[in-house]
């Protein structure tokens, strides 16, 4: 099912943006392989995630932290990759620093329409679950119950690996998931973009009118489509070289 190739044609600079219920360590294996392939790789972690105890964050704060990281490191000509919720962040980052971006790559990522929030893309039952989990939390966060996480985020993993990954998950700040985003400028940009779709990813339901592809991907207009095998989270741990090559296929000229 998995095939490995060694690419040396074009060194790129990748900036990898993680998703919800994750932190920068999501990219560890993938980033290591991209570096072995000769690329420069950055994996910024945005507020409310990782070791940051403050969960009172907004989507604008997360976007600004990534923009500041790019500017502070004097990064240009970058391949900006967003996974899952990270797709909404690279949409907003692209609005602010389009001149620094060579290509946008969405890895099973949200591509929101103008005026949408992430939860607008969930089915009614899932949205209600999220709202209840948010209401029950003490700090406006959402912690996925293990059965949901196991069946939808790490469905290809063994039970042991699924539990190991889950044990490292922190509650997700709820506010950015419910914020409706102004994306008018994003839809005026001509930045090249790619969509990487992993066929076993069930974090969103699969189907033409829901889910990652073609529902999200087709919103990009003209885009490069790269397909592979994998689920939402565990494949990054078990087959990082495979995903690194998919990101290269998506990011190269």
From TrEMBL:
Transmembrane regions listed in the UniProt entry: none
Organism from which the protein derives: Cohnella abietis
Entry-linked Pfam families: Abhydrolase_6
Protein name (Swiss-Prot/TrEMBL): Salicylate esterase
Family matches, as SUPFAM superfamilies: alpha/beta-Hydrolases
Classification lineage: Bacteria, Bacillati, Bacillota, Bacilli, Bacillales
AB hydrolase-1 domain ranges (all copies): 14-203
Gene3D superfamilies on file: alpha/beta hydrolase (3.40.50.1820)
Matching InterPro entries: AB_hydrolase_1, AB_hydrolase_fold, Sec-Metab_Biosynth_Hydrolase
